[in-house]
Description:
Number of helices: 12
Number of strands: 6
Amino acid sequence: MRVPDAAADQARKIRILICDDHEIVRQGLRALLDEEPTFDVVADVATAADAVSASHSLQPDVVIMDVRLPDATGIEACRAIRQERPDVRVLMLTSYPDTDAVISSIVAGARGFLLKEARAEVFVDAIRRVSAGESLLDPAVTAPVFERMRRLPSFEDPGFASLTEQERRILNMIAEGGSNREIADAMFLSEKTVKNYVSHILGKLDLRRRSEAAAYMARRRHWYEGKGG
């Protein structure tokens, strides 16, 4: 049976959820996206918790997520949404470039990262691209991210080899975005003990931040996948 044109048009629309704690930003984004006939803004929310809940109930194709939110980070919300719905595409927004935030967003499963100052046509194109399965970074943050990744140690390095089994487990949890409290609960350790472990791990790998450890593991996994295991 032939589907009516109106129904077919609706079926082709990209369902979008907007999450930003500033009402004026949400209204501006909605006004922009409502002009696009193939976009359907299903909701706009102000908190990470509401974004996770709306993603579950409204099933958007793309979530536009502010990095900084009042109740949690957009990165944490991205991780929670992707854990429940791996097919959803998350496009992170921020007011200024932050290499750590970009790397953490990628590790959390975000498919794109844009500055809020991006032109309207760039923004619309970004939504289409991430909806189609592409990944993208704003040019303003691409070079610093790749430079940070380039400086990470190689994966046959003695630092990783020196990690104990316990330290490797904790490193994997860091890569999955676990906080010290979450790691402590999962491993039946005190939060202070986990904090000491994290410091030792960073020292052995010659890294400075948790986000660098997460990026290190993401790059390590990619390297081994390229080697066939």
